[in-house]
Design brief:
Layout lengths: L8 H8 L12 H12 L2 H9 L6 E4 L5 H8 L6 E5 L2 H13 L5 E5 L12 E5 L7 H14 L5 E7 L5 H15 L13 H9 L4 E6 L8 E7 L2
Parallel strand pairs: 1-2, 1-4, 2-3, 4-5
Antiparallel strand pairs: 5-7, 6-7
Helix pairs in contact: 1-2, 3-4
């Protein structure tokens, strides 16, 4: 069992307030989602811990509504942050919330990673994205991310790992439901196996560490940190 905790309720609520609607009668979905996600999933404290000590700029591939940017600032990490996603609605919300929270050094852009990869030199985060790509697309994304790394930077991945477990079945089922509900605009396609992912990163000369990152969730989520020499 991993020991990384999620944010406590006070911090989770403080961050989530940036996602409140501008008017009292507005949609509060992103506020409630953010508060629950931050307070139950150790993802964001885990990523902050993985990036601590590196000052390289961070590119967040598939950033969604930009929760990682808020979490990094809450954890005292001031590194430059750039988030990209193919969902224009989520990018609009990410920009609005970042402005509301007065986050410095944060940029969000609409980018379709199926068509192009941003130019970047530094650390890269790929969080809960790989499962939505087929094997060939995963390899292209990983190769592109590896090419962006510079000395002292880190590639941080959170993904479900295919191992035939009940946790993996629950992970796959939840991701399919998220797609059916419209939260994710794609259905899960292919979950990587640990040995394949480790080989891809190690063969690129990276130092690789796998750590379970499940917290109090029932999912088979793992944090993979690959460091450039």
């Amino acid at each position: 069992m991993d020991s990384t905790p999620a944010f406590d309720g006070v911090v989770a609520t403080r961050i989530a307030r940036a996602f409140l609607p501008q008017r009292w009668y507005g949609n509060r979905w992103h506020y409630h989602y953010s508060r629950i996600k931050l307070g139950s999933d150790p993802l964001y404290p885990g990523v902050a811990s993985a990036l601590r000590g590196s000052e390289r700029p961070l590119l967040d591939l598939g950033c969604g509504i930009g929760l990682l940017a808020h979490a990094l600032r809450a954890e005292g990490l001031a590194l430059a942050y750039r988030g990209v996603d193919n969902d224009a609605g989520k990018i609009d919300e990410a920009r609005r919330a970042a402005s509301t929270a007065a986050l410095d050094g944060v940029v969000f852009e609409v980018v379709d990673l199926a068509r192009t990869f941003p130019v970047h030199a530094g650390s890269v985060a790929i969080l809960d994205v790989l499962q939505y790509l087929d094997d060939a697309a995963q390899r292209r994304l990983l190769d592109a991310a590896i090419a962006m790394l510079v000395p002292g930077s880190r590639l941080v991945i959170r993904t479900g790992i295919e191992d035939g477990s009940r946790r993996m079945w629950l992970t796959r089922t939840f991701d399919r439901i998220a797609n059916l509900l419209g939260w994710m605009n794609a259905a899960p396609h292919h979950y990587p196996r640990a040995d394949d992912l480790r080989a891809t990163l190690a063969n690129a000369g990276l130092q690789v560490a796998f750590t379970p990152l499940r917290g109090n969730t029932p999912f088979n989520n793992w944090m993979v940190v690959a460091q450039a020499p």
